[in-house]
Amino acid sequence: MTAPQYAGKVDEILLGLTHAVRAAGVPVTYDRATTFLEAAALVGAGGLAQVRLAGRATLCAGPEDIVRFEQVYAEWFAGRDDLPRRVDREEQNELVSPLPEDDGADGVEGEADALHVAASEVEVLRHRDVAALSPEGKALLDRMIGQLRPRLPVRRATRRTAWRRGEIDVRSTLRAMLRHMGEPARVHHRRRGTRTRRVVLLVDVSGSMRPYADALLRLAHAVAQAPRQGGSSGAVEVFTLGTRLTRVTEALRTRDPERALVRVAEAVPDWSGGTRLGQVLQVFLTREHTRYLARGAVVVVVSDGWERGDGAELAVQLSRLHRMSHHLVWANPHRGKEGYRPVQVGIVAALPHVDKFVAGHSLRAFEDLLEVIAHA
């Protein structure tokens, strides 16, 4: 994989490198990316050796990050001996447009072909398995997930509001008549309003889910940022599942997704560990601060079903969760793959108790999952 040609725009090439490094699992924040660009400018961004040293010093926080950075760096600059010369802003304003000056049919046709190819690549990416994407593809996927606009489900509220039709609002109608000295006035109507129904996301971050965890948490961040009706507070709750239950709702309320994921990584102690879904769900349904969250909510469990504990215990807890929730959805990254069979212990225990069993391996699957949530 080689870096794209940006006609001398060194900063764009280096920013592309930061996106690829972040997609590989290194927690690169906005501040780190900015510091990297400044460091590369100071040491001389025209040389790849200087870029490598600047990246190691600013983007990496530990030995594991350095290993990942080196791998991405080698792939990103494969086949390149040097970077283009850095162009000043005055020079950028004087650059000739890279598009051809000829406005004839050939230019229009070439531009249309380029747009068609770009659109086709994006459409292919929407159906690709997240685990099979290259760092460059994951960086593009991250941007596409950020452009999703989830809609939260709604429920009927107990309080009634004024409306142009519906049941007669006797009190408002009588008050209007009194204002008119008892003369007949316009009949007022009312209806039950709507409020956002709570959505609870339980995301498996065990070792078997590691290739999908970053994309799924980005999807959870998009859901947590979705607008809500009726001033509903706490409409979205997000937990990670592994060997323990961890609430990451506050971290995902951070508007910037990169900062939010860094906060999640700092809060989750069992990242890429084992899986004890039955025990963790029991904690969720019995702990004082979480046991009420599933009542009347849309609960989404995202897991591949690899359970190290007792499948019978998981079935019991899922049965309780199904009775409490309004709608129980299980999303499995392997569900959409050809030849998949639900033979895992967790999936066998879950299927009798879930309302929807959907895929969760690609951007298209994420979009379908959001539609299921919106209409639950």
UniProtKB/TrEMBL annotation:
Recorded hits in Pfam families, A to Z, give: VWA_CoxE
InterPro entries (UniProt xref) = UCP010256, Uncharacterised_CoxE, VWF_A, vWFA_dom_sf
Q: Which residue intervals define the domain VWFA in the entry?
A: 196-374
Q: What is the name of the protein in this document?
A: VWFA domain-containing protein
Q: What is the protein's species of origin? A: Janibacter indicus
What lineage, starting at the top, does this entry show? Bacteria, Bacillati, Actinomycetota, Actinomycetes, Micrococcales
